[in-house]
Design brief:
It is a single chain. The protein is mainly alpha-helical. Helices cover about 50% and strands about 5% of the residues. Strands 1-4 form a two-stranded antiparallel ribbon. Strands 2-3 form a two-stranded antiparallel sheet. The protein has a two-stranded antiparallel ribbon with strand order 5-6. α6 crosses α9, α15 crosses α17 and α23 crosses α24.
Length: about 525
């Protein structure tokens, strides 16, 4: 009887321990599932932003081009999908060791099954970006397949910005970008330049691999930093591979490498899942010119009649749609035929409504060029606050940010009151004379002059001489179809305000064909 009681006691203890382990295991599994779901939600949000970008919206992709009639997922049963995915991953020739588990399976399903339309757009963008990225990675002897990290980081969106401030197609943080030579200032952010950022990413990944000697850990360090990976290695007891160290990594990093494997799988086997690359028409016939004078994208777009979104797509590194060639040349990428027209018409482009685009930016121009104050030739442009207006509404009206508006007016809060006078930019009179003109006039006044001898009057001439008719102080221009006051002012080297004031025009958008515009002579 006693023997039976002991056996019964041990059985109860065994069942309790087993139930405890099962509960812990279930808790761990549910926690991992929740983390995977969180990461999948973040990745889906990045894909949605990519789908909302201009060049993807204008793609010719539709339901038929995204999903093929054939998809082997229709024939893969739940029971054997793991063995099929595992087999396919094993057949990918890669220096990076690709493991497989339930986490990897979740990300394969995300990219290859759940978000087929997004993956189609990614494949379309990859045809544009990846050939040049592969060449850069090859230059640094970094495995080319690591370019697929851009799918995890940004879904190939060069202007993506994370809540933490990571920016660009490779999602560089400010300090890391600076460490690898990426310039970031008021006008330019090299993290948004796909090729400059790729060059920096290749060097960064190479350095991380040289530290950890394992691509899984190097990829994890790209996500959370080398310091966090070192701590995880220490906590693991000195393990040296990703899968061994994974439980000790930060939660948000534990699924980063599995997500990469899921994206890698999609890039290799998308056809078997019925996905067709979207026909995304980012121009390939492009070239670069070095611009030697500051210019706004809208100046280029108006004069050359180009869609400004195309200019932004080809030049994503310029944060304010401004090429800041104030003190040194900067690159501009355009299609071949547009570039030829830019070279021919660049003077007209630079002059087109210059003060309209660069007046509000004068504070940044001074910072960029090293000037400490506004040139004396510039005049402040003011706005009087009306009822119902806020800083945001006023800033939007004049094309500046709230931060710029507050800095220009030294405001410490967002509060403004009716009747308050705010500086909203600067204007530059086109007829302002440079200093050397005054010197020339002074020199002319010192020239020796000879007083002419008065002519002997003709006695037979009794009719007094007629006074000379003064020449008009202006010429007249007749408005033609397609003309705007800005175009006319630019043609004659004037500002819109000067021309409007001279002609008593109160609404600059109200001129009509055939209207006579007076052009003041200089």
């Amino acid at each position: 009887m006693r023997k039976f009681r002991l056996t019964y006691t041990f059985l109860v203890l065994f069942l309790m321990v087993t139930a405890g382990y099962a509960q812990v295991n279930q808790t761990d599994n549910s926690a991992e599932a929740a983390e995977i779901q969180r990461v999948e939600s973040q990745l889906s949000a990045k894909m949605d932003k990519m789908l909302d970008s201009w060049f993807v919206k204008h793609a010719n992709a539709n339901a038929r081009s995204v999903i093929n009639s054939y998809s082997d997922t229709n024939h893969i049963s739940e029971a054997n999908c793991d063995s099929i995915y595992r087999l396919r991953l094993s057949r990918i020739p890669s220096i990076v060791q690709l493991g497989y588990n339930s986490s990897v399976r979740s990300y394969i399903n995300l990219y290859a099954n759940t978000r087929k339309r997004s993956s189609s757009a990614i494949l379309g963008l990859a045809q544009y970006y990846y050939p040049r990225m592969c060449a850069i990675f090859d230059k640094y002897d970094v495995p080319e397949e690591l370019i697929y990290l851009t799918i995890i980081e940004s879904s190939l969106n060069p202007t993506a910005v994370s809540p933490a401030g990571a920016t660009g197609i490779w999602q560089f943080m400010y300090q890391t970008g600076k460490m690898y030579g990426l310039e970031v200032n008021s006008f330019v952010d090299d993290r948004r330049d796909p090729m400059k950022a790729t060059d920096a990413a290749a060097r960064h990944l190479r350095d991380l691999y040289n530290i950890f000697n394992d691509w899984g850990l190097a990829i994890s360090a790209y996500n959370c930093g080398a310091g966090n990976v070192r701590k995880a290695i220490t906590r693991s007891g000195g393990k040296t591979t990703f899968w061994e160290v994974r439980p000790y990594l930060p939660k948000e990093t534990q699924n980063y490498f599995p997500a990469y494997i899921g994206a890698y799988y999609m890039m290799k086997y998308y056809k078997l899942h019925g996905i067709v690359p979207a026909d995304i028409r980012i121009p390939l016939d492009v070239d670069t010119i070095m611009v030697k004078k500051e210019v706004h994208f809208e100046q280029i777009a108006h004069v050359l009649n180009i869609d400004i979104e195309q200019i932004k797509t080809l030049n994503p590194q310029y944060k304010r749609n401004v090429i800041p060639a104030f003190t040194q040349p900067f690159p501009l990428r355009l299609r071949h035929h547009d570039l030829a027209r830019f070279e021919t018409m660049q003077d007209s482009i630079y002059k087109y409504e210059y003060d309209t685009y660069f007046g509000p930016l004068q504070m940044y121009v001074n910072t960029y060029t090293g000037k400490t104050d506004t040139p004396t030739v510039a005049k402040k442009k003011y706005h009087v606050v009306r009822s119902g207006e806020s800083l945001t509404k006023i800033a939007n009206r004049y094309g500046i940010s709230v931060t710029e508006l507050k800095q220009m007016n030294k405001l410490k809060s967002n509060y403004v009151k009716v009747g308050q006078k705010l500086v909203v930019g600067y204007t530059y009179p086109a007829d302002s004379k440079p200093a050397n003109d005054g010197a020339k006039a002074a020199a002319d006044s010192t020239k020796t002059t000879t007083t002419p001898t008065p002519a002997t009057p003709n006695p037979s001439s009794t009719q007094p001489a007629k006074p000379a008719t003064p020449a008009p102080a202006y010429t007249t221009y007749t408005v033609k179809k397609g003309d705007t006051l800005g175009k006319i002012a630019s043609r004659y080297g004037l500002t819109v305000k000067q021309l409007a004031d001279y002609n008593h025009i109160h609404n600059i958008n109200s001129i009509s064909v055939g209207q006579k515009i007076k052009i003041p002579k200089k």
